[in-house]
Every structure is written in C-alpha cells, then in structure tokens.
Amino acid sequence: MHEVLRASLALALLAVPSCSDGGKPTAGAYCKIPEEGQPAACLQPAQRDYREFFRALAQDKLSDQAAQRVERDVAQGAQSDRPYEALSTLAYGYYRLARAASARPGADPEVSARLERWNELLSRAYATSEQDPGYRAAVREAALDVERRSPPMGLRCTDAEGNPARCDSTEAVVRAMDEMRDTTGVRGQIGRLIDRFFGSRP
C-alpha cells in the first residue's frame, strides 16, 4: 500500500505545475493575482487571448458578452484550449470586480450575481478535473488566491452543514474542494501529502 501511495504521489507531484507569481509567462501554470500597481508578465498570454475581457475590465464596463469566452473556457475546464489562461483571467477579474464593488456605496446585485456564477464555475472546474491533477491543483490555488486577495462581498453560498449562508468570496468553494479531496480514499491522502510540499490554507 505504501509503495502504491509513493508511486502515485510521485506521479501527482510531476503533474502539478508551479504557480507563476508575476515573473515570466509559464505555460501550463496558474498566474497569481499581482500586487496592486505591479505588472504581471505571466498574465500576458491571458491578456492576448482575452483582449475584450481585459479591456472591459479596465474600463469598469465588463458585460456578459465580454465575459462569455472566459466563462465558457473555464466551464470546459482542463479540456479547454487555454485552461490556465482562462483560470488566471477569471481569478484576476474576480479580484478586480470585488475591489471596485467594495469601493462603491451599497451592494451591486449585478456584480454579486456574476461572482456567484464564477464561484459555481470554479467548483465545477474542480469537480470535473479529477483526471488532471495539475489543473485541479491550479483551480484550488486560484480559489485560495481570490479568497486571500478579494475584499468581503457577502455572496450567497452554503455553510459547512449545507445551509444557505453568506460568504465573503470563495471560502465555500475552497471548503467544498477540500471536502471532495479528503473523501476520495488514496487520492485524498495524496492531496494532503501534496499540501505538505506546496503549502496549505491555515
């Protein structure tokens, strides 16, 4: 059993890409949300692929049409032609929308609805990527990145008991990911071991 676990862990570690944190663009890696005012070279491929999205985001005029391609590609998960670029774009867009909305008085129902939809997309991308551990790890990292960086938004979600609740951002998404990972036998053990190598949420 231990030999199987070691072999499986080795394969999983080889398949998990490192996250790009603003340096040179890295193929097959999630690009972390850059610090405010700092350039993120690793977002350049995403900016090329999703020009309309980034242009609308910069003008604070993100429409459903401008977000459509990104949402479609995240919904396709690891099967998308540009899975990591779409994931990085969604996380960055989430952060920017949440910051802009928190600076305005009162809740913006349109922004809240969009972020709730993006939470669902992240959950679905994670749930359907069991055969691609590298991408699945990147989806979880994106959700954690958004949770750490985004201001509280009071979005609709479910609590640990499955009851309707309000969440600041993606904490319910991360919780569901952790529960899914930790209830999958040997895969759950591998997930916990990977956390020891790559760090885990406190």
Describe the protein in words:
It is built from nine helices and two strands, in the order H-H-H-H-H-H-H-E-E-H-H. By secondary structure, the chain is mainly alpha-helical. It has helices spanning 2-15, 44-49, 51-58, 64-76, 83-102, 109-127, 133-149, 171-182, 186-198, and strands spanning 155-158, 164-167. The two termini are 29 Å apart. Strands 1-2 form a two-stranded antiparallel sheet. Helix 5 (83-102) packs antiparallel against helix 6 (109-127) and helix 5 runs parallel beside helix 7. The chain has one domain (2-198). 60% of the residues lie in helices and 4% in strands.
Could you write a compact summary of the structure shown?
The protein has helices at residues 2-15, 44-49, 51-58, 64-76, 83-102, 109-127, 133-149, 171-182, 186-198, and strands at residues 155-158, 164-167. By secondary structure, the chain is mainly alpha-helical.
What is the 3D form? Answer: globular
- Count every helix, treating DSSP H or I runs of 4 or more residues as helices: 9
- The helix-and-strand class reads mainly alpha
Low-pLDDT runs: 1-18, 196-202
Question: Based on DSSP secondary structure assignment, what is the total number of beta strands?
Answer: 2
Largest sheet: 2 strands, antiparallel
Share of β-strand residues:
under 5%
Gyration radius, in Å: 17 Å
Roughly what percent helix? 55-70%
Count of individual domains: 1
Average per-residue pLDDT, rounded, comes to: 83
Strand order of the largest sheet: 1-2
Order of helices and strands: HHHHHHHEEHH
Head-to-tail CA distance between termini:
29 Å
